[in-house]
Amino acid sequence: MAENLTGRTIAGYRLLNRVGEGGTATVYRAEHAERGTCAVKILKERMRKDPTAVKRFLREAGYGSRVCHEAVVRTYDYGELDSLYFLALEWADGEPLSDFVHRTGRLAPRLTAHIISQLAGGMVAAHAEGIIHRDLKPDNIIYDPKTTAVKLLDFGIARDAELDDAERLTRTGFFVGTLNYVAPEALSGALVDEAADTYSLGTIAYYLLTGVHPFPGRTPRELFQQLLTQDPIPLNSAVTGLRFPSAVEAAIMRALSRDPTGRHESVLAFAQDLAGAVSGATSPGDAAAVPPDAGLLGRMKSLFKGRKDTEA
Prior knowledge:
It contains nine helices and eleven strands. It is α+β, with helices and mostly antiparallel strands. Helix 3 (about 110-130) runs antiparallel to helix 4 (about 195-210), helix 3 packs antiparallel against helix 7 (about 265-280) and helix 6 (about 245-255) runs antiparallel to helix 7 (about 265-280). The longest helix is centred in the middle third of the chain and has 20 residues, at about 110-130.
């Protein structure tokens, strides 16, 4: 029978009800006297005796606590209390982005670019801390349809670019990530850099626009082989009758280059490229989805404008 800690108070967080469950942890909605509603992850009972699982859980908490950005779920507390390993997080309103797309269908280019800009901002903050996420995917993104805001979560398989091989918690030769979104170079289990997150972000954009993935494989074996040996299906060939401006296709396909050196130099560069391509060729219907200067690119424009006004 699954463990149910509803009603318990851990480090000041009163667990109200279970809201989710994964392979290693259970998520509760909780209440805190000062922080209000929070999310609390509890490492499952069977995992608490596994030193590697415990270390990975605490590592996730430590990585998340280092990243401070409005597009990343904030980490409040973590640790061990009464033989329970817990992670207290900001409560993010909304639903997994994957659920939203499944319910509503593919997204307009302007909204897609807005979402990617927010995620890129969060990843810039992570990369500045030396953290490579390695598992960017719609399941790990909370989306609020009311505000069009996103929150990135789950640093469970992230890695610190500064750690040496001795500190790794995955075996050499085994990749980590999700096949539909993982970069090809990660399949060998080799250490990856920021370019791998750029690839994953490009795949998310591709999926949001088309509702399908860049490779058609239906089994892990097929996907694995296609990622290693084939180029992704061009954006404008993904869905019959669905076409995008050539600049939009070029931005996304560059991010999906099998060669990491062929991708944008950063997640920010990809987000800017996509936003510029979309804003240069959007229909009136798309323009209504999100204000033209929404997201990271718009804030950058405002910043540069403010500098020019000051210098004038």
